[in-house]
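User: Sequence recovery, please. Input:
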């Protein structure tokens, strides 16, 4: 057990303390009586006794246990049970434990919740004969019970020489919260010289003030908070009182004090101001934050010449990789620092010294630079970074979200310093509407951190009007930037964009065509599956094939008629090229179903190695046991090259899938004929260990004579037998006799003999 809690813990801790002896420790540490074992089981399962008579009987048993010489761990568990069902009859048995350092917390767990005045009276009486941490624990329990009759004794404890006792009493008086308790705490605040006790008094008064505020008595609460702010308190307590004072005074009267905090040079005060502003809310608070925002916005502004990456590529000769997006995303504070290296795009031209070509715009000037591999370059014009408080104010205004706050955020997104502008653009995703879509889209086109933030906000903005605004923008946008809008169509799942997405499937720009495929996968209906299948079959290269396949998987996963969807995929198989057949099978496998399973079986039995490879791989990932017969067949008579793969897939089903035990045993029985190599036999033995039954014990024992896996078989047989010994003595005895016949190893023989002795006693 250990000590009781002291005044170093906040009020909330009083309701959440846990004794140091845990339930598991109790069960393992002591031999329990049958009654206590049963009670512990009921507790662990949070069960209820069947009727009041049974509860009463259990309570009396635990009371008798407390009054006996039983081990303390048993008594601790008895207290747990009494906390659930006991009444006043249990109080006399619990009271003596309050003086026991190891059991006091357990006794108080029960006394805190037993209904009626008897438990409170017992705790009050215990105050007269306890001291130190035991006394503190009783005081805490009286606070939990909010015992009004304890106020007098708690007032006396405020003067205790032990500061921990005095502090606990102060917090308890605050929890009880009567006018008498409030008066005594206010008086003690003026005279108490010990800072820890004074802080505890402030905590108690803050609890009272919070209760008054929640009860609609804001003026009384404000008066207490103002008194606290005049007292010499620690900073955390002073901040707590300041927050309470602002909230109690309300959105108007509290603003001057909020302004003081905002203008403080202390970062903790500023953080407290923003936290309190969020709680207070309202247009008045937003205006105060906007006024403060203006002070920091004038310090730094947007760069006069904005850096925009128009085109960038890395490579040499006819081997290049477009890195425009990567460089745009790397712009920070209007500057780009980059090294021409393979980290940009792998190694597009092996064995050749490559270069990075960048075409960029700075203000109204457009330039192109060439950077040889291994060299670095810095572009752009850095500006003075935004003040940290400016960014924090933006996020606070975003949390307020009212019209005043939104307007300030919008203006900062347009003209604020770099860092603040990025923050404002991000916040617009939460507080904006369709009207901010043009601004965010223009920001996307500029690149850098603001562009990334704008894309995130365009994805998050709620409402169908935003969807329509993006569709309208898609209709107006040509060239490579159209791909970004198609990405937003995908992310938002914009159904209204379907006509334009369908048209872009034929776009001459490959990147747009691929993004259109991805978008169609997200918004397609059943009637569009043929288009996606056609796109997959016509894909000219692996990248486009993969994109079309992923789009098909996305679309198929949303279809309600899964059998009809799978049928469409399977209909396209016979006439498809071999690589497209593999892709179609992969999509179909994601759908599941009897017809797909049969198609995979046929592919695995085919004469084409590529199909055999794909089908056996997909069967190995099948998530239901109906694939087991097919895998069993393939493991015995399928293509020789893939028999081991099929067997391992079969074992995966037996090991991992949720199956009725008898079905699992039947599959295990079949597996014993399939597993011929030591590697698979070891996997099967591991399955036996995982599912210990008399049948798996018998099957494992059959491997004891197999030299290749004898060690694993011995380990498995013993592991299963130790679990089954109490329930299956005959099966265990037979297996142990087989093990003893081996004559080795010595440790296994010793354990086998012990198990035999154990089961023979049954």
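Assistant: Recovered sequence (762 residues):
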């Amino acid at each position: 057990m250990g000590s009781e809690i002291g005044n170093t813990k906040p009020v909330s801790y009083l309701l959440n303390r846990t004794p140091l002896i845990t339930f598991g420790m109790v069960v393992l540490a002591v031999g329990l009586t049958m009654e206590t074992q049963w009670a512990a089981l009921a507790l662990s399962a949070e069960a209820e006794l069947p009727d009041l008579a049974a509860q009463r009987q259990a309570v009396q048993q635990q009371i008798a246990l407390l009054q006996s010489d039983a081990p303390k761990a048993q008594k601790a568990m008895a207290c747990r049970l009494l906390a659930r069902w006991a009444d006043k009859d249990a109080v006399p048995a619990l009271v003596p434990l309050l003086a026991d350092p190891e059991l006091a917390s357990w006794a108080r767990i029960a006394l805190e919740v037993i209904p009626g005045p008897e438990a409170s009276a017992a705790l009050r009486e215990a105050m007269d004969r306890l001291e130190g941490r035991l006394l503190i624990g009783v005081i805490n329990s009286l606070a939990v019970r909010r015992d009004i009759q304890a106020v007098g004794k708690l007032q006396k404890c405020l003067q205790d020489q032990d500061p921990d006792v005095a502090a606990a009493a102060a917090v308890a008086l605050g929890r009880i919260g009567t006018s008498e308790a409030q008066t005594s705490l206010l008086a003690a605040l003026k005279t108490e010289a010990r800072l820890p006790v004074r802080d505890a008094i402030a905590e108690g008064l803050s609890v009272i003030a919070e209760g008054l505020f929640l009860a609609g008595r804001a003026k009384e609460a404000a008066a207490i908070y103002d008194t606290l702010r005049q007292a010499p308190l620690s900073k955390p307590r002073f901040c707590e009182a300041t927050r309470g004072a602002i909230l109690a005074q309300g959105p108007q009267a509290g603003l001057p004090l909020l302004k003081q905090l905002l203008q403080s040079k202390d970062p903790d005060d500023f953080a407290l101001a923003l936290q309190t502003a969020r709680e207070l809310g309202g247009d008045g608070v937003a205006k105060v934050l906007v006024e403060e925002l203006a002070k920091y916005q004038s310090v730094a502004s947007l760069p006069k010449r904005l850096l925009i990456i128009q085109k960038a590529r890395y490579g040499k000769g006819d081997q290049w990789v477009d890195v425009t997006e990567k460089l745009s995303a790397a712009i920070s504070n209007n500057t780009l620092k980059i090294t021409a290296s393979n980290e940009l795009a792998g190694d597009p031209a092996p064995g050749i010294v490559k270069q990075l070509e960048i075409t960029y715009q700075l203000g109204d000037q457009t330039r192109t630079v060439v950077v040889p591999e291994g060299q670095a370059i810095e572009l752009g014009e850095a500006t003075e970074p935004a003040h940290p408080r400016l960014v924090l104010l933006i996020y606070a205004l975003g949390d307020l979200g009212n019209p005043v706050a939104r307007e300030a955020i919008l203006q900062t997104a347009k003209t604020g310093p770099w860092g603040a502008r990025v923050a404002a653009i991000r916040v617009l995703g939460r507080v904006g509407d369709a009207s901010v879509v043009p601004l965010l889209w223009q920001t996307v086109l500029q690149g850098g951190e603001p562009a990334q933030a704008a894309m995130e906000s365009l994805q998050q903005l709620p409402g169908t009007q935003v969807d329509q605004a993006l569709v309208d923008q898609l209709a107006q946008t040509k060239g490579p930037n159209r791909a970004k809008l198609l990405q937003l169509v995908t992310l938002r799942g914009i159904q209204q964009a379907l006509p334009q997405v369908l048209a872009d499937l034929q776009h001459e720009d490959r990147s747009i065509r691929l993004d259109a495929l991805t978008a169609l996968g997200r918004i397609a209906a059943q009637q569009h599956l043929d288009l996606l299948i056609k796109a997959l079959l016509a894909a000219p290269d692996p990248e486009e094939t993969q994109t079309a396949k992923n789009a098909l998987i996305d679309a198929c996963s949303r279809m309600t008629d899964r059998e009809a969807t799978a049928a469409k995929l399977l209909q396209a198989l016979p006439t498809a090229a071999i690589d497209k057949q593999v892709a179609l099978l992969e999509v179909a496998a994601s759908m599941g179903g009897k017809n797909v399973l049969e198609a995979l079986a046929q592919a695995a039995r085919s004469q084409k190695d590529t199909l055999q490879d794909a089908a056996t791989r997909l069967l190995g990932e099948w998530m239901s046991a109906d694939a087991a017969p097919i895998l069993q067949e393939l493991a015995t008579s399928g293509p020789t090259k893939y028999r081991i793969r099929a067997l391992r897939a079969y074992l995966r089903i037996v090991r991992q899938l949720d199956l009725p035990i008898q079905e699992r045993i039947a599959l295990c029985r079949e597996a014993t004929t399939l597993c011929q190599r030591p590697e698979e036999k070891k996997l099967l033995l591991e399955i036996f260990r995982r599912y210990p039954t008399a049948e798996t014990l018998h099957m494992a024992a059959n491997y004891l004579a197999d030299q290749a896996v004898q060690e694993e078989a011995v380990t498995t047989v013993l592991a299963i037998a130790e679990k089954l010994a109490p329930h299956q003595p005959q099966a265990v005895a037979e297996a142990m006799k087989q093990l003893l016949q081996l004559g080795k190893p010595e440790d296994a023989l010793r354990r086998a003999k012990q198990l035999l002795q154990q089961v023979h006693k049954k």
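The chain is about 65% helix and 5% strand.
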